[in-house]
Amino acid sequence: MPRSTSPGDTCGVPEDPLRHAGAAPSRHPAVRHHDRLPLPQGTAGLTVRVRREDSYRVHVVPGPAAALRTLRGELAGRRAALITDPVVHRLHGAPLAAALREHGLLAGVTTIAPGERGKQFGTGGRLLDWLAGVGLTRRDVLIALGGGALVDTVGWVAGAYMRGVPYINVPTTLLGQVDAGIGGKVAVNHSSAKNLIGAFYQPHAVISCLAYLDTLDARQLRAGLAEVVKKAVIASPELFAFLEERAEEVLAGTGPHRETVVRAAGAVKSELIARDPYERDLRRPLNFGHTLGHAVETATGHGPVLHGEAVAFGMAAAVRIARAREVLAAGTADRVTGLLGRLGLPVRLPELAVVPEVPRVLAALEKVRQIRDGSLRFVLPEELGTTVIVDDVTEEEILRALDHAGPAGPAPAAGGVPCSAGG
């Protein structure tokens, strides 16, 4: 079997004569590997056994000083390349970069366009060029300082650069702290579909600074809360009840309620991700609201409708489908859509910032169906904490869910035509 030894453990092998010949000391001391592998026998194919464990800390800290201390601890003396956007750089990036520079830890800092405008394949290529230009090595670290779209982009770049360098997420939006920053799903958009170009690449650490949330406008906070509601519906009735009781206070930032939300939603995401970190099972409760939500984002051009807003609409539509199928009680359906409405989130098409054309939404769903092995899955709630994932939603059901004129009517008759968008 292979064996690794440190320079102090020679295992009977003479010491390197260069150690006593005046040679300059190496930055990385030599490590010897001793192998005695036999020739393979027979004609059978080979099996490559790979074990991989990705675990990391999600830190929730009160303010920038604590964030810097935590970041320095995670860097452990390694250089960092900081990637942010112009707005976040002005608010948080410049002082963070100055502090890292003061401690000799900053390799460079650059910015990309904010939001979905920066989450593009071309952005990734420019960032790779920049990293090569500043001489980042595999020992160094990327820091993603920004919202959900930015941490998605930087995570994808980190996985591509030199076949993978560590990266630390420092999300500055509520959506980033409770969802996008955790889980290692990294991607950039393609003109035909959201997140079409991506991978699974876990961060080295996540540092969520609660004070950063104070700089968000109400729309961004609401969009982040959509992902909190999602987690509450699929996995935590207790969190749902907390949101019902404290919704306005969470939005206003009064008391310790935002910290409660960030920690609780992060814990739900961490638990569900740990069960299936690479989405081997495509039937995932975490996709609640995302089937139609992603289609809305694609149909509106990736940007005018915030991700959380699209997910909120997608959840409301899924609730209408579940209610029409009589798998969800009317009272629970009203609680979910009622909470979304109290938080100022869209539950019907006219409430979106840009109202997509229905044919464009159906075309986007067709693209999703092609990506997801020929089927289009909807996560439908049965009760708080219980979901069912189905792949037989008909086009009629989708059109009813998209219809903003009134609540969903009775379920379509059995034998309806399957959705042309793969539904």
UniProtKB/TrEMBL annotation:
Region ranges (Disordered): 1-40
Reaction(s) the record says it catalyses: D-glucose 6-phosphate = 2-deoxy-L-scyllo-inosose + phosphate
Domain 3-dehydroquinate synthase N-terminal: 111-222
Swiss-Prot/TrEMBL cofactor(s): Co(2+); NAD(+)
EC numbers: 4.2.3.124
GO MF annotations, alphabetized: 3-dehydroquinate synthase activity; metal ion binding
Domain 3-dehydroquinate synthase C-terminal: 224-353
CDD domains (UniProt xref): DHQS (cd08195)
A Pfam family hit: DHQ_synthase
EC top class, as a word: lyase
Keyword annotations from UniProtKB, A to Z: Metal-binding, NAD
Domain of life where this protein originates: Bacteria
Family label: Belongs to the sugar phosphate cyclases superfamily. DOI synthase family.
Protein function: Catalyzes the intramolecular carbocycle formation from D-glucose-6-phosphate to 2-deoxy-scyllo-inosose (DOI).
Protein's recorded name: 2-deoxy-scyllo-inosose synthase
Taxonomic lineage: Bacteria, Bacillati, Actinomycetota, Actinomycetes, Kitasatosporales
